[in-house]
Amino acid sequence: MANITDNxxxxxxxxxxxxxxxxxxxxxxxxxxxxxEFDYTQWQKTLxxxxxxxxxxxxxxxxxxxxxx
Length: 69
Known about the structure:
The protein is 77% helix and 0% strand. It has 69 residues and is mostly helical.
């Protein structure tokens, strides 16, 4: 992917949230993220610590199949 501007990155991120969650839940997610002192990098380190790569792959596949139905 080519380099894009910060504004384009933000727009793509918001559009991804809206596509995935809908407008109301996307707005709620953004508000929750802004309300907390949230360290995304730290959160990612612990998010899947009890899951294997196979577990995560199965969850992703199931999620994709659900969205395609």
